[in-house]
């Protein structure tokens, strides 16, 4: 299938998280974020070559690091931030911290109408946790953004 302009259609998109310990990562995402494991495939040595999880209606994949794919710590960090909109940012952050995550930015009220913060999971992946606390228009958010950069 292609679009009218001839570009191919995307039929599915999901993040694939490369980790140093796939089984432990799946446990972490299940225990702290409520992820549901949909499928898991392992190599002869037990390493996870692919596991699909459902997290809030969205699919993410997890796999163990190997020669072709490296986990964030071996690359110096992760340039990708997974963003989670949740009903209670403080509760999710606390669950992640109990599971071994670390604070990058503490959960706090933000000028753009969100309460949120950023955490790094034990495998080096970054998670932005946020909940809406104030309904703002795009214009209001831009005005507040301009004010924050002017300070």
How would you characterize this protein structure?
The protein has 151 residues and is an alpha/beta fold. The chain has a single domain, classed as 2,3-Dihydroxybiphenyl 1,2-Dioxygenase, domain 1. Helices cover 26% and strands 36% of the residues. The chain has a 4-stranded mixed sheet with strand order 1-4-3-2, covered by helices on one side. Strands 5-8-7-6 form a 4-stranded mixed sheet, covered by helices on one side. Helix 1 packs antiparallel against helix 3 (89-98). The N and C termini lie far apart (49 Å).
List keywords for this structure.
151 residues, alpha/beta, four-stranded mixed beta sheet, 2,3-Dihydroxybiphenyl 1,2-Dioxygenase, domain 1, 4 helices, single chain, 8 strands
Short synopsis of the structure:
This protein has 151 residues and is of the alpha/beta class. The protein is 26% helix and 36% strand. The longest helix is centred in the last third of the chain and has 13 residues, at 138-150.
Helix content: 25-40%
Main CATH class: Alpha Beta
Widest sheet: strand ordering: 1-4-3-2
**Rg from C-alpha positions?**
18 Å
Mean of residue pLDDT values:
91
N- to C-terminal separation? 49 Å
Shape: globular
Characterize the main sheet: 4 strands, mixed
Overall number of domains: 1
* Count of strand segments: 8
